[in-house]
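Hello Y.,

Per our agreement to keep a running log of every chain we model this quarter, I'm adding this entry. I've kept the format consistent with earlier entries: sequence first, then predicted structure.
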Amino acid sequence: MIGICMKCGNHEWDKIVDGATVKCPKCGHTWEKETLPLFILTGCSGVGKTTTAQMIQQKKVDFVVLDADIFCGYMKSETNEDFEKRLNLIEQLSVNIMQSGRPVLWTMAGNLDKLHHQYCRRFFPNLKVLALTCEEELLRKRMKEGRGINDENWIQSSVDYNEYFKTHDRHGDTVFETFDISGKAVEEVAEYVIDWVKGNC
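Predicted structure for the entry above:
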């Protein structure tokens, strides 16, 4: 809704955003919007993104927590175009939710490099990304015992992705911070993420 001109009804993806102001290029009408960052909690498969998010939800925080996997089964996940459509929807939903004054945190594993290149990215002043990491032995145990995954290719891909986060600070144009959850209880990790969100609002 925030991207639809209230004066001429223009709903095209062509709005000009400058800080808290949105302008319709067709009629020149301007309106104000909330300026909150978009938060992403990322990490490899099995590292604990969903478990952490569930704990955060139980704490009744003052921001919205959503999982990008809610689109699985409803949207295709085969081509770059498919993933870009999903990311635009995630960003579009987020900016509309934020008009209530509440930030949004998504759990999301991949496609971080595409986040900055979607139309709806313009509605956020910045993106804040936190990657959960852990020791390889712990990750393998989580995947095998916690999730019942025995596919060695899947496990190794997660190990490699986990190592990427531990040795880099960006994926494409997307900069991320990291937090090692090894030896930490889920409540401790959740509290860290909550403080991270609050500290970046």
